[in-house]
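Blackboard transcription, Thursday session:
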Amino acid sequence: MTDWLGMAAHPRTPRPELKARVVARVLASRRRPVGWLVAAALALVIGGGGGGAFWAYRTIGALTADRDRLAAQVAALHDTVATFIHGPATRLIQIAVSTGGRVGAVTIFADSLRHRWLVRCDGLAPNAPDQAYQLWFITKEGMLSAALMPMDTDQPMVMALDMPREGGPVMGAALSIEPRAGSTGPTGPMVFHLLL
Amino acid sequence: MIEPKRLSQEAERSLVRRLKARDERALAELYDVLSPWVLGLAFRILQDADEAEEVVGDVFVRVWRRIEQHDSRRGPLVPWILSIARNRSLDALRRRRRWWRKQERWERASTAAAGAMEPASAPAPHEASVPGWPVHREVHAALAALPEEQRVVVVLAYFEGLTHSEIARRLEQPLGTVKTRLRIAQAKLAEALAHVKDWMA
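(Written on the board underneath:)
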């Protein structure tokens, strides 16, 4: 469009106060780079806050899920322990063990009615990095693996184990030190070997 | 009658140099010379005094920030500023068009202002003292000299920012006809205003 066409519009006398407003606005805009910096910083803070809030939301969600899962496990374990302890067909076996120069104990709650064991290990020495404890069922047909228990920390361990379907009745239990991946039969030092 | 301020080409070059040097007095001088025209153009497009004043502020802010971009070899300062004013006004107009509650009022005001351009020969005394008035008369006369059908398409395109298709729909004319009329009108205006190089013509 023709350059000067805007001049076709009739001029209007601005209100006197408009000049001061416009000039002030123009001169304020000159300082806007600082304003932009502030705005950018604010945006960063707000963005960071938003990101932090999102991270917190996600983390809290994940932690809540973990808490619920662990609470369910604890409740299940509590039920299991209560069943073993108070079950009429539960037999308590406590075995003193010595590992790594320290004395500990393996406690077995054997529930002959439900064919389950609850095994608690206390005071076992932590394994070497390439080793693990392995619990065995002693049956008529030999040793069957019951559980592999790599212990990297000095913490009690509790397990609920179902009796094996094969191999005949369980006659006893044994605990040995095996390679970390476990063995099909005991090969390492025997921690205990007990016939019930 | 008050003698209007002159903004000759030399004065314009000096003003631009001072604006680029961030001379605040130059800004005030530019406002004194151009604000009536910027406000008039914005009001012509927007038909709203408050919005037109906002556009005036926008225009001078933009001119102050972008004065480095003005290349005097490509054209004088005033048309450059008027183009900014037009674009800002049309932006505001489009925003307002989206605001449907104001649509009806705008239509009424627009219709009222749509008729023939006011005669340049009888300006109000205070308007006659406005710098640039001779250019206004020249442009006004060139526009008024166009045949009605060409003038209408120019007004719709320039002051209302309508596209060719929108003008065709508004006037219920074929698109090709609108384009032809606009092209002819532009050529006539360019020829009629070719001698306008100086703010005071």
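Lecturer's comment: The CA atoms of residues 91 and 161 of chain B lie 9 Å apart.
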